[in-house]
Write a structure and sequence with these properties.
- By secondary structure, the protein is α+β, with helices and mostly antiparallel strands.
- The chain contains 9 helices and 6 strands, in the order βββααβααααααββα.
- The chain has helices spanning 34-43, 47-63, 78-91, 93-109, 117-126, 131-139, 145-157, 166-172, 193-207; strands at 7-11, 18-20, 32-33, 73-74, 175-178, 185-188.
- Strand 5 (175-178) and strand 6 (185-188) form a beta hairpin.
């Protein structure tokens, strides 16, 4: 007999069955310069350390076909989560995954504001959603707001708090729960591929 394991991801669109999480909930909607923010928060305004970091990340990115761009805007991501959560509920996790992929591409490689209306509409249409429907949802700031706030609070209650420091963020998210037949497995923070494979192999073994 086969066993269908649900995998739950808690993540932010700047750092799936998908749960929302904000790394920087105090950020304004307008946002601020992404490069300067990373340099200040992560490296205490050290240009030398920031340059070394971007060089390293670009090396990693090139290996998997990602051309990171560290310029642009970092801003509040609430509306992005509102969009993802709404269409996950309405159209399923596959559509939500396509929205997330577009948001990542736009933010990390195209200097896009993470939750500006044009960014969100582009992500929705990339996932196959009718543009007029996407525009109507994005422009209605009340639709889905309470549900998304409730889910964000739920993640805080589960111990996945907003990050006041980059190091804490790296330890907490992504927060992944793999549902097993006998027990659940939790992975917190960035892991090597081998650790994810080991967990999945354990789920398969215990399901037999």
């Amino acid at each position: 007999m086969g066993y269908n394991s649900q995998i739950s991801f808690t993540l932010d669109t700047i750092c799936p069955w998908y749960f929302p999480h904000q790394l920087y909930p105090e950020a304004s909607k307008e946002g601020e310069d992404k490069y300067e923010w990373y340099k200040h928060i992560k490296f205490n305004d050290s240009e030398d350390k920031m340059q070394k970091y971007t060089t390293l990340m670009n090396t990693y990115g090139e290996k998997v076909g990602i051309d990171f761009d560290f310029h642009g805007t970092v801003a509040n991501t609430f509306d992005a989560h509102r969009l993802i959560q709404h269409y996950q509920e309405e159209l399923g996790p596959g559509v939500a995954d396509d929205i997330v992929n577009s948001l990542y591409t736009q933010y990390f490689t195209q200097r896009a504001h993470p939750s500006a209306p044009d960014t969100l509409i582009k992500a929705a249409t990339a996932a196959g959603i009718d543009q007029r429907k996407a525009e109507a949802f994005v422009n209605d700031e009340y639709e889905g707001t309470q549900e998304t706030k409730m889910l964000l609070r739920e993640q805080v209650n589960n111990g996945i708090d907003s990050c006041r420091a980059i190091d804490k963020c790296r330890e907490q998210v992504p927060h992944i729960v793999v549902e097993g037949k006998r027990r659940d497995f939790t992975l917190e923070g960035a892991k090597e591929v081998g650790e994810y494979l080991k967990t999945l192999e354990a789920v398969v073994k215990e399901a037999q």
